[in-house]
Amino acid sequence: MTSTPKPTNNGPTIIHLPKGPIVADVVLVHGYGGDRLASWTSEDAICWPRNLLPLDVPDARVILWGYDTSSALTIDEHAHHLLLALEDRRPARRGRPLIFVGISLGGLIIKQALVLAVRRMTIERDLRSWNVWRSTLGTMLIGTLRRDEKQNPPPGVKLFEGWGPEDEKVKVHRETWAYIAKNLASYQCCAERPGRSPLPVEPDYVEGTGNPSTHEELGFGIFTDREDPGYQSLVQMMQHMFTFIVDEDEFYDE
Question: How far apart are CA 192 and CA 242, in angstroms?
Fold first, then answer.
C-alpha cells in the first residue's frame, strides 16, 4: 500500500496572481518557528498578503516562502534554498522587480540569500543569481535580526552554526550587505497595535532566554484590516518602491 506524502509548508507558493500584467513579485518569508501561511494569518482567518495586499498593490504577484527551523539546516542553507526557488520561479523574467518582506529570522535569510547572489555573481559569474540580485527593488524587514559584535547565537542550535560575531561568515555577510543596501530601498519597522506597546525593531533573541525570538507569538506580521497603522506604514513604503519601476512592458506576464 502506497502512503500519501504529507503536505509541506516549505518552499514557495503563489497566493495572488494579477489578472493583468505582473509588474513586480512580492516575496514574504516568515520568522523563527513560523509557518508559510499561518505567520501572516489572524485568528479570524485574514491572511493580509492574500486578502488585503492585492487591494493596495493589485499588479504584484504575491509569493509566500516557507522553511522549517527545526530541521538540521543552517541559515546559509535556508538562504541557498530561497535563492534557488527564486531562480526556478523566474528563469526568464528579465529583471521583473522583486520586493522582499521578512519577519525576524526571515529577514536575515532574505539578506543572506542576496549576499549569496552577489558573491556567486562576482566569483562564479552565475547569471541566474545575478538576475535575482539586480531585480531586487527593496527589502521590508519586520523585527529583523541584525548581526553585530555584541550578539551571540544560542549555543547548540544547528540553525546558527557559523554565525557567531567573530565568525568569518558574519564578517562577509556584514560587508556584502553594506554594499547591497546602498542600491536598495530598505525599510525596517515594528508592528504597533492599538492598546499594545510598540515592539522592538531589531531584537535578536527573547531577552533572558538565550533562544531565537519567535515573533509570530508576539503578533509580528499579522494585520487584520487596512486601517492597521503597521499595515498602512508597510503598504505606503511598498507603494513608494513601485514608483521606481519603469518599462513595465519588458516583463513577462507569467
Answer: 24
pTM (predicted TM-score): 0.81
Asked whether the beta carbons of 232 and 51 are under 8 A apart, the reply is no
Contacts (Cβ under 8 Å, ≥6 apart) of 18: 54, 58, 59, 60, 61
Angle of helix 75-89 relative to helix 105-119, nearest 10 degrees, comes to: 70
Q: Per mean pLDDT, which of 96-105, 178-187, 207-216, 237-246 is the most reliable?
A: 96-105
Are the CB atoms for 77 and 109 separated by under 8 Å? Answer: no
Pick left, alpha or beta for residue 77 (phi over 0 → left; psi -120 to 50 → alpha; otherwise beta). Answer: alpha
User: Model confidence at 119, in pLDDT bands (50, 70, 90)?
Assistant: confident
Compute the distance between CA of residue 27 and CA of residue 49 in angstroms, rounded to an integer: 10
Give CA angle at 106 (19, 229), nearest 5°. Answer: 65
Confidence of residue 104 (pLDDT cuts 50, 70, 90): confident
In angstroms, the CA 123 to CA 242 distance is 31
Percent of the chain with pLDDT over 90: 28
Burial of 70 (0-12, 13-18, 19+ CB in 10 A): exposed
Q: Return the amino acid letter for 249.
A: D
Any bridge partners for residue 16, and if so which?
62
Kindly state the average pLDDT of the residues 180-193.
61
